[in-house]
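Ticket 4471: requesting a sanity check on a complex prediction with (2R)-3-sulfolactic acid. Repro inputs:
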Amino acid sequence: MPRKIEVCLSPALIDLYAIEDSIVVVIDILRATSSIVYGIDNGAKAIIPVAQVEDCLAYAGCGYLLAAERNGEVVEGYDFGNSPFSYTAEKVKDKTVVLTTTNGTKALHLARSRASQVVIGSFLNLQSLCDWLSAQEKDVLLLCAGWKDQPNLEDTIFAGAVIREIHSSFTEFDDAGVAAQDLYALAKDDLRAYVGKSSHSKRMEALNIEEDIVFCLQLNVCTAIPVLEGDELVALKKDL
Ligand code: 3SL
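Returned C-alpha cells:
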C-alpha cells in the first residue's frame, strides 16, 4: 500500500497538510515532548495539554499537578514547568499533570482538531515510536513545534532521524523530509554539538538549564508512546 511521510516545519504551516486520515507525530525536543514522553514512561496516569496558562487553573484543587512554562521558565505559582527532571517517577507516577508550554502544547492543539491520531515523539522514545509507525497503515505527518511559529534545528533533526529509520515503509516523501534527513546526517555523530547551534539551546544555556538539553538528546531510554485520547495524553497500548 502506498504510504506518505511528510514534515511540517512549523505549526504555522499545518493548514497546508491534509491530515484527516493521518497519524500526526508532535515534536518539541526542547523540551515539551521529551518531558511528556519521560513522564508517561515513568507512570504518569495522563498528561492533559492545555493551550493557555489560565486554562490550568480550571483543574486547581482537584488533585492534579499543574505545570506551566513560558519562554523557558516555570510560571510563578505552578507546581513545575517543562524540565524533564520534573517528570520522574517519584514526582508523576499515578498522577495526572495539566501542562501548558510555549510551543509544544500549541502544536498539539492544532493537530488534534483534524488528525486521525496524535502521538508524541522525542529522541527518548525514537526506536519505539519508529517501530510502531512502521507497523501502521496510515500516512504520517511529523509536526515540528518550532519556536513561536519559526522552524528550529532540533525538531527538524529529529524528524530526519525518524524518516531515516522508517524510510522503507513509505513510498512518498516531501522536500522538507529530504532536508530533515540531510540535517540529521550532519548532526547525528554529535547531536549535542550540532543542537548547540540552535537558538533554543542558546536560550536554555542563558537560563542555566543545559542539563535539560543533554537529557533530551538521549536515545531510546523510554519505550512509552504517548497518544492523545480525548483531552488526555496516555500511554499507547501497542499491539505490535
Ligand atoms: O515551547 C515549548 O513547548 C517548550 O518546550 C519550550 S521550553 O523548552 O520549555 O523552553
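Notes from triage: DSSP finds ten helices and eleven strands in the chain. Leaving this open until the requester confirms.
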